[in-house]
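Support case: user asked for a sample of complex input and structure output to validate their parser. Sending the pair below.
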Amino acid sequence: MAYADQYIDKLRKSGLRPTKQRIKICEVLFDAEKTFHFTIKELVKIIENQANIKVSLATVYNTVHAFMRKGYIKEIPLNASQSYYDTNVTHHHHFFDEEENKLIDIHQDDVDEVNIKRTIPGKKIRSVEVIAKIVSDNQSQK
Amino acid sequence: MAYADQYIDKLRKSGLRPTKQRIKICEVLFDAEKTFHFTIKELVKIIENQANIKVSLATVYNTVHAFMRKGYIKEIPLNASQSYYDTNVTHHHHFFDEEENKLIDIHQDDVDEVNIKRTIPGKKIRSVEVIAKIVSDNQSQK
DNA sequence: TCAACAGTTTAGAATAAATATAATCTATTA
DNA sequence: TAATAGATTATATTTATTCTAAACTGTTGA
Ligand SMILES: [Mn+2]
Ligand SMILES: [Mn+2]
Ligand SMILES: [Zn+2]
Ligand SMILES: [Zn+2]
């Protein structure tokens, strides 16, 4: 794990103690070549499979929330009974495949700036997210 | 209840038996002058307050799901420990006030058509929704 | 008109995601 | 290395939602 030192730094700079558990979670989340989307359940499974260390469910939740507060990951709103998280923290949008229950990134460049003409007095926009739900295109129309 | 007959029709036409409970829920949802957003908890509270009839929680869930299947209401995707529903079933977008946890409609006309340049092979877009998160605009920058 | 039945409601139990608790453990630093 | 603030853990709790199975009711056709 050549990256461990890097994560130790990252955690220290964030005021988080670099524990074995947090470093492991960093490796899973940030060693990946590409950013990805995950649920807590999936994250736990990945950690278990690479099982050189045991991490309790509570710690996974705590760490994910800590990383969210620090801006290392973000939550994606879906009408699910389960939260989806994203290691891509840049501003971007999503397809949601309703058949496979999978999120797919849409780069910001691939969506023209969303122009909202309406405003709410005393309020400002903090973020704008587009979710496009997709389904199989069975172009066989009888 | 001049509207009751209308709801009895609506339910019958949908293949749903017009029970006292379903008619009551129709009144709460569709007698309102304006469309609105609600959680199950809020809906239960409204029904309880107008308490000429008792409706169990299971029935509220069942009926809300039945009405969704029929397209009379729709679910709005938000950070999901709780589902938000909408009696406005036209295509439209939302502000989400993060401080008050309230949804506000944005009419379709108030958002330029969202142009997504990317496509997924074999898939087609079924819906596109924009959620703009808003917060208080304290325009006091030190 | 009414019996029969499918569909509906209900209280309460079950489930599952998420959070809280409080005892134990550990990274930090003096 | 000792003291301690912070972290982890097993476990319990909370909360939204769904399930169950018994009781009830709207509908239909004789
Ligand atoms: Mn959360
Ligand atoms: Mn649902
Ligand atoms: Zn993403
Ligand atoms: Zn709405």
